[in-house]
Design brief:
single chain, mainly alpha, 5 helices, elongated
Amino acid sequence: MISRDTFLRRVLLADAALSGLTGALMAGGSGLLAGLLALPEPLLRYAGLVLLPFAAFVAFVATRPAIPRGGAWAVVLINGLWSLESVAMLVMGWVAPNLLGSGFVLFQAAAVAGLAVLQFYGLRRFPSAA
């Protein structure tokens, strides 16, 4: 448990807010975004729907009186996997977005990776008790 780290708490809260906002946008606007980005509508919708409970989980972790170390590490791991899978989706040719769609995928992958790095830093500031 980490009780005195406001940096980690703020990064987690930012992650929760951004994930919730992005999830709502992708789930609710998948039809519009699909045409704009040349990404499959079901991919955008389901990715958005996955982000909503994730955002709730991150908010739950961030708002505990003492941040549960395991919960925070789970967020870092999930963010890392999301970033890797986003890039892999493009590299492996699983989708064929237009330039704007590729930019969208790469931008959100970089933003999520950045959050994971900040969360990792926040966790490393408080080594676990021996």
